[in-house]
Design a protein that fits this description.
Among the domains are: 121 residues, PAS domain (Beta-Lactamase, 2-Layer Sandwich), CATH 3.30.450; 82 residues; 233 residues, 4-Layer Sandwich (Phosphatase 2c, domain 1), CATH 3.60.40. Helices cover 43% and strands 22% of the residues. It is built from 16 helices and 22 strands. The strands form four sheets. Strands 1, 2, 3, 4, 5, 6 and 7 form a seven-stranded antiparallel β-sheet that branches. Strands 9-8-12-11-10 form a five-stranded antiparallel β-sheet. A hairpin with a 2-residue loop joins β2 and β3.
Length: 647
Amino acid sequence: MRRPLSRRLQGPRQSADTPDTGARTSIASRLRWSLLLSSTLPLLLVGALLITISTDAQQRNVYNDQVDLAKRVQLDVSRNLEELRNQLDQFALKVRPGTSSTQITSLANDLVNRNYPNILDFVLLDGTGKERLHLIKLLLLNEDALGTRHDDPAVQQALRAGTISYSPIARNADGIRSFVLTMPIRNDANTIVGALRTELSAEKLAHELSVAIANSKSYPYIVFEPDGTVMLDDGKPGFNPPRGLNLLIRSPNEVAQYAGARSQEVIGAQAPVIIRDGSEHTGWTIVVEQPLSTAYGNIRSSILLLGLLVLVAGAMALFYAFRQARQFLRPLEALRNGANALGTGQLHYRIADLGNDEMGELARTFNSMAEHLQSSLAEIERRNERLRRSMALARDIQIGLLPDRPPWNGDEISVYARSLPAYEVGGDFYSYLAMSEGRAAIAIGDISGKGVGAALLMALTSSAVESQGRQIEHPAQVLTALNNLLAPRLRANHMNAALLFAVVDPREQTIRVANAGMIAPVLVGNQGSTFIEVGGLPLGSFAGAVYQEQVVAFAPGDMLLLLSDGVVEAHDANGELFGFERLETMLNEQPPFDVHDLVEQVLERVQQHMGDAEQHDDITIVAVRPAITPDKTNLEEEEQTISYATI
């Protein structure tokens, strides 16, 4: 297929009249003519470049001017706030534990008098948020009229975090535009001993805005940075809140073009109001806007004239370029339609003959590729179908390995289990063993990893559990024997097996549990749920591991809940885990009626939490409930008692 292509690519060197090649056109020739024509029009490129450079330069100048104006207004506003802050700091420095109430009142009156009418409300609070002094303008409230402000978030922030906060500017009950400054008061040891809450008039700031750039064509206003709310406008008529202010707030360059105030397109710049050498943020931002019609009015005529010349010169080249492009795009359109058809799975689609040029050769190569894809896809589908049947068979076999009913009388020990693999096959399993003297053993395990490898080791571990569990009486000894037996194979595959083995003795009213890396079992009763604290290394982690067992007594109606980690690690679409807290809350809400109800409740809550999220781990739940009678005689206990060695 490639050797004929090589001969065709060498064809342009031959004569067009050669019978072997035939008459044909060359895309390369058309491109050469287009490039030759473009080289005769350097003015077109130079003109476009000049327009771009001129526009960018003018835009940068306008943007820089707006940023400078915003910073200048910000400095004026910050200077006023800095002056007030200095006076409040001086007052706070004089408030000490040894300062008398008379001295504090005198200092507060002096501060309010010097700043009247800028200070509208002045409150001194102690460390609990209770008012020690309260001045409303020049009026001092009596002690019996003092209240508490411990519910004020700004006060709590000052008392607990030691931070200073500025509220948004808004009209108070008297119709005056004001804001609240809340700051902590510290003693000589730098410990917070109180707070100062001051309501300040914003009329002085409004005056600063009106005179800050009086000779400019721009207009300023102040916004609350967290939500972009306009707090203080320029005071002139026709001001409407800007619709596109978010573009400016999110701009990393502090300047942007958007739909601004007074319903017109503007260039706006912002400057955050920060005092104390940049260490104290108020949350306010100065915005200065200038209409586009004003900003670009001086350069539009020159750009329009230069652009007209560029358009006239470029129109001549574009006419020929479009004509050639039309001829060039026809075969490309056919190739694109073919690629889209293949992308949607229409592998039978073929491109019609496009001639003898390079595009025609490409179309023939495309058709050959489509034929190969069609045959390859059919083979892949056949293999996938065989794989699906094999995986379905493996799933059926694995499910068949799990017991559907216990090998003992269900009236004495009730048990119910559910296992949901995350994939076709999984690594979770559970097993039931009937033992002597009416006892029963329940095992639950989780092989590390997923898929076929975990399923094979699950079958090996499950069979080993049944073999060792029938021969050994104590759970801890069972886990030790299993670890010695399985460790070489598990470590060879870089895997391990978590396993919990429990022996239930309904006559002794005890449960003996040993754990190798599984979640601690839960004892569920009428008085609530309790985790049985017993643990150990997973099987295969350490060849010489020794396991301990825990003996737990149970009361009539108690149930033992065994879980794999797929329950608590199930997460929703946001990645939030189901967790132990939800499990404990669910178990304590309403005691289940029986083992079936308990397992299904847990599984239902986990699936509700997951929602539409994909299950990423196997989920296995086993519930056991011994049926005991609380009034059995001591004689029966003595006859049926099994002596256990201490492990």
